[in-house]
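Z., the sequence and structure:
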Amino acid sequence: MKYFLKNCFLAKLLPVLSLCLVLAITTQAQQRTFKPVDGIIIKVDNQIILRSELETTLAQVASEGQPVTPELRCNVLRSLLMNSLMLARAEIDSVVVEDAQVNSELDRRMAYFVQQIGSEEKLEEYYNKSLRQLKDDLRSQVKNQLVLQKMQAELTEKVTITPNEVKKYFNQIPKDSLPYFSTEVEIGQIVKLAQIDKKEKDKARARLEEIKKRIQNGEDFAALAREFSEDPVSAKDGGNLGFFKKKELVPEYEAAALKLEPGQLSEVIESQFGFHLIQLIERRGEQYNTRHILLKPASTDLDMEQTAQELDKIRNRIVADSITFAKAAKDLSDDAATKDNGGLLANPQDGSTYIPLDKVDPGIFFTIDTMKVGSITKPLPYRTEDGKQAMRILYLKSNMPPHQANLKDDYQKISAAALNEKRQKAMNTWFNKNKSTVFIDIDPEFDACNILQSINN
């Protein structure tokens, strides 16, 4: 078991570490009493690794049940070094991510944090910072994570695994080290977002038109933005979004903003976020600064009822065998994370579709607890990760009882572990090749780890 788990852990260590950096905001929330003595322990060109990064990552690993040994400490440090090396090489090789992608990811994460803590006000109170400040704090970390993901994808995109390699990998695991898996389930979902009723859209548009008239009659845009805007980040700043470059904001907003002269008001325009009234503040070269008032049409009970009826029709087609659940999810689900995977939820630990029963979201657990394999629920109310109202149907594809790992029942998990190991070997090869191409300075305290030695594949 130790052999199997060790290989699985080391194979996934790198992506876990890069995620740790981005989720620092939540890690700090969970570990407010942990205050290591900070300082730079590694430099890689312009990149630095702080002692706090190492200790925080080790604390997270420990919270997941992994004992913190000297060997693990060195492995974590090596992975942090590899992340820094990739970021340094990305800068040299001009590997970049678009600001629009960074902004989109920041918006998604803010919506997730708000949903978890309950409201924007509670989030701001907890950290004693505005949402704008929280986004600014996370921006560089999110950007680094996206660059790391892009680098990792480029370095491992051609790595594949064959059935023979999976079998060979499994057969190399000592029989007494095979893990014993608890009850695991495969759960699928098809999600439909609540469609906003036209009457609600017309109400929002009309309210903005009235606000526009008030501004044209002399009232202050910023004051009205603070009073009415439903953009939680910018409302407190009088609707001010700050400077952006082209393609960093949604197309509808940008197109309307760039037609304006400083001080001019736009027509009321619609985007995926709702309805906007925009005022151009200033142009500065290729950048422009705007403020806006955002109104979001409300979903009504009728909207949810219509969405449920649409989902019920999809469910009836699946039950009647006129379409498979996987096909229906791919063609009809509004959930981008699962639709291309047959609607199946992923295990966050290893990416497989098999989720330990004790790790299933409580909101799903109590629903599937009495379901038979192959059955599908009636439409259920659902709120997406970014806070949108929706309905979904859940499908219990399988329910695997506790068992020792074997190729027949656990091929997907074993294949994922074998592929991760092969990808890690590709990363190790890249590390050995590129470590001498940048300046690296390591605190002598960690000489015993010998983390710059070539990694054997």
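The two ends are 21 Å apart (CA to CA). Residues 1-36 have pLDDT under 50 and may be disordered.

Let me know what you think.
H.
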